[in-house]
Amino acid sequence: MLAHRLQVQRFGDLPKAAMKFLDGSAADLAADIDPEVPYPEDCRLKPGTVLVSEHGGAQHRVMVLEEGYDWNGKNFDSLSAVAKAITGTNWNGQRFFGLDRKA
Question: What are the residue ranges spanned by the domains of the chain?
Fold first, then answer.
């Protein structure tokens, strides 16, 4: 708790939406109810976000742009197109980058 307090003093507390989510989740757990957890595919990725995946022993980084994605200096319209460029086969981009519930 001390470390948390020091972080709050230095960097500020969590956003109100995050606090509300955590309070609701705690109440659900106390009532023996599985809390509703939002998954990344339910949210839009913000430009500047960097996605990382490993394939073939190499780490691949993809940056989310306003329109599309950048990998190795090339622009792609979809994560699936990036995953295909990396692997050479058709992939669901959300799954390849671990953004779906089944990953």
Answer: 1-37, 45-96
